[in-house]
Specification:
The complex is a heterodimer of chains A (156) and B (499). Chain A is mainly alpha-helical and 156 residues long. Chain A folds into two domains: 56 residues; 78 residues, no CATH class. Chain A contains seven helices and no strands. Chain A is flat, with a radius of gyration of 25 Å. The model of chain A has no long low-confidence stretch (mean pLDDT 88). Chain B is mainly α. Chain B has one domain. In chain B, strands 1-2 form a two-stranded antiparallel sheet. The mean pLDDT of chain B is 82. Classes of the chains: A mainly alpha (156), B mainly alpha (499). The interface between A and B is large, with 70 and 68 residues.
């Protein structure tokens, strides 16, 4: 039996709702609140049941409009590259600072998306981030934490 | 009201705020023009920047971005047949054929004049309707608000994607579930945090918007990059032709604009409806109104066919501010994003906003109008130059969107857990979008989640746990009946289609 992607997503949502409901029933409330008309559990419990009912209906009822996606036309390679670069960016941003990590992230993203005009890639990464930081930090007075630039004395 | 208008004007016409409207319109036009990126993404990208301003200035910037993005969406519809937002899909029906006939400049001018006229008429309606409705909505109690929020969420699910009601309702529940993460507002009990300290304060609204719109839009564009059906059919972006509109075309527009404005405004006021439905309805209505000869021109470059959806979608944008400003309940995804931004400024929109923060209430209304004037006098002559933005390669565009999204989150928390969470949510949202699970209901539900739980709490405490509060008051009952009708209609249309 072939299950459509929409029904598969609904099945995942059903599992999520069951887990959510289970967690909702296990929320610790104060003893005096246990039998109150409304406590910290009430709303999540309603939501859990609503999720179970809606996802079950989606699984059971026939699909009125089917969504077909041709996977051959999807660019998985680029998306994986971008996600990996973004994850590395998120992991290092606190350690090496906003300026260097963001500039490298932009440069690497341009490269992995197929760009090879090195000069333009450079301008739209390092000087671009520097200008953006000046706009935020220097002109709009929005604090931008960057331990590296602080260490070398560029930022106060 | 005159006093309020003057307060609004004095705030909106300060040098800083005029500059913000200009910047907002310009930035909104550029972002809205890029296929796939709509007003919600444009506003979301602006939120972190607005935190450096006072609330009025921040909101004025966002209102400018909103109108700019709607106008920008029309531009990509007309020039590329690639609508930036669903609300401008109907614009492409006649705008793109007109551009193919070498009249792109004229099509853009008709779109701009119609948008301006629609926006102006509906701003006047808003000016009159908002204060009166604010007074009426003071009579609303917790059960009414709860019922109204259920209605809003049901309506946006019914209207946001045709034939996908259950999918949209699932997104509503997911949005509400995400809103329950963190400390309970009354008891301070932590829920769904799994002992992670980073989740104690809940998930930030900006994070959800950035992940489900800005970042997920960017990933979707890359993901579908190989799809031959999505490749834009490019017309010359440098030779747009004259932007002059002749007398005959002006007369045609003059007939279309009033009826489309009224329709657009009324549709915009309805929770969940908004610009998309307004533009399609106006297009259909206009086709019925015109004579047989004009009817034949529809789809081939008709002035009526271009003017009607453009007028209606702008009128609906103003209309959608009515429930936000008067009840504190957003009627559309875009106004939900604006509500989130307002809450970020520490402002609770609703009937009391009119009394407690009249300068914000009126300056938002007045800035909308100023925004439209700016769009007309600044953007229209600049269109031939702005249109070249459409030629920006996605190799640069996508990393820049990701950069703005990550920066927005980093600015708020200086915490990389939030960036990881955003990437995770964006990835899930990208797959959900691929299978037509709509995101606006999720955003609306996430924004309303806290308020909904609060009103349900009060209602249940008043009625001692009984569900009677749903039908005890006539207003609640009427709202509930409308909700049931919408759900019933969805069920009926499902069975009718099957039979």
């Amino acid at each position: 039996m072939r299950i459509s992607p929409t029904k598969f997503i609904s099945l995942l949502f059903l599992v999520l709702s069951v887990f959510y409901l289970y967690t909702a029933y296990n929320i610790q409330v104060f003893a005096f609140d246990e039998n109150a008309p409304f406590n910290a559990r009430t709303f999540p419990i309603y939501l859990g049941w609503a999720g179970i009912i809606l996802s079950s209906l989606k699984i059971i009822l026939p699909e009125k409009v089917t969504t077909e996606v041709n996977h051959k036309h999807l660019d998985y390679k680029s998306i994986i590259y971008l996600i990996v670069i973004s994850l590395i960016y998120a992991a290092v941003i606190l350690k090496i600072g906003y300026f260097i990590s963001t500039s490298l992230f932009l440069f690497a993203s341009y490269y992995f998306l197929g760009e090879r005009r090195w000069g333009l890639m450079f301008i739209l990464s390092f000087p671009f981030v520097a200008a953006f930081m000046y706009l935020l930090h220097g002109l709009l007075n929005i604090y931008l934490r960057d331990p590296f630039l602080k260490y070398i004395g560029v930022m106060g | 009201m005159i006093e309020g208008i003057l307060i609004g004007l004095s705030t909106a016409l300060s040098l800083t705020n005029i500059l913000m409207v200009m910047v907002g319109c310009f930035a909104g036009t550029i972002i809205g023009m890029l296929p796939g990126l709509g007003p919600m993404t444009a506003i979301a990208l602006m939120i972190p920047i607005t935190y450096g301003f006072d609330p009025s200035t921040g909101l004025i910037l966002m209102a400018g971005v909103y109108y700019g993005a709607v106008f920008g969406g029309s531009t990509s519809s007309i020039l590329l047949n690639a609508p930036g937002i669903p609300g401008t899909v109907a614009t492409a029906f006649d705008g793109y054929p007109m551009a193919q006939q070498g009249k792109a400049g004229k099509a853009l001018a008709i779109a701009a004049y119609s948008s301006f006229a629609g926006g102006t008429i509906s701003a006047i309606f808003l000016l009159v309707a908002a204060p009166s409705l604010s007074k009426v909505s003071l009579a609303f109690r917790s059960p009414d608000y709860f019922a109204l929020m259920i209605l809003g969420l049901t309506a946006i699910s019914a209207f946001s994607s045709k034939g996908q009601f259950l999918k949209a309702m699932m997104m509503v529940v997911l949005g509400l579930m995400l809103a329950t993460v963190g400390q309970d507002s009354l008891s301070d009990i932590t829920r769904f945090t799994f002992n992670n300290m980073n989740l104690t304060d809940g998930i930030s609204f900006v994070l959800i918007v950035m992940a489900t719109f800005a970042m997920s839009e960017a990933l979707t564009i890359i993901f579908r990059g190989k799809d031959p059906n999505r490749a834009a059919k490019q017309i010359s972006l440098t030779e747009l032709g004259s932007i002059k509109v002749n007398k005959e075309e002006t007369i045609k527009m003059a007939k279309t604009i009033p009826r489309s404005s009224i329709l657009g405004f009324l549709i915009g006021v309805l929770p969940g409806a908004g610009a998309t439905i307004a533009s399609f309805l106006a297009y259909g209505m206009e086709r019925n109104y015109v004579n047989e000869e004009e009817k034949q021109k529809f789809g081939k470059g008709s002035v009526h066919g271009l003017s009607a959806p453009e007028t209606a979608n702008n009128a609906a944008c103003s209309g959608s501010f009515v429930p936000l400003l008067t009840l504190g309940i957003p009627g559309s995804g875009t106004t939900a994003v604006m509500l989130g931004a307002l809450l970020g400024f520490g402002i609770q929109p609703g009937p009391r906003l009119y009394q407690t923060n009249p300068e914000i209430f009126w300056s938002v209304i007045m800035s909308m109008y100023i925004g439209m004037v700016m769009l007309l006098i600044l953007n229209l002559p600049l269109i031939p130059y702005i249109a070249r933005i459409l030629a920006v390669p996605r190799n640069y565009l996508i990393p820049l969107i990701l950069f703005f999204s990550v920066t927005g989150i980093y600015l708020m928390s200086f915490n990389n857990f939030d960036i990881f969470l955003m990437i995770g949510i964006a990835l899930v949202a990208t797959f959900l979008r691929l299978y037509d699970f709509p995101m606006p209901p999720l955003i609306l539900a996430f924004v309303l989640g806290g308020l909904m739980e609060e009103t349900l709490r009060r209602s249940l405490l008043i009625s001692d746990g009984s569900p009677n509060f749903l039908w005890d008051r006539p207003i609640t009952l009427i709202i509930l009946l409308i909700t049931i009708t919408i759900v019933g209609w969805q069920i009926f249309s499902t069975f009718r289609k099957k039979s």
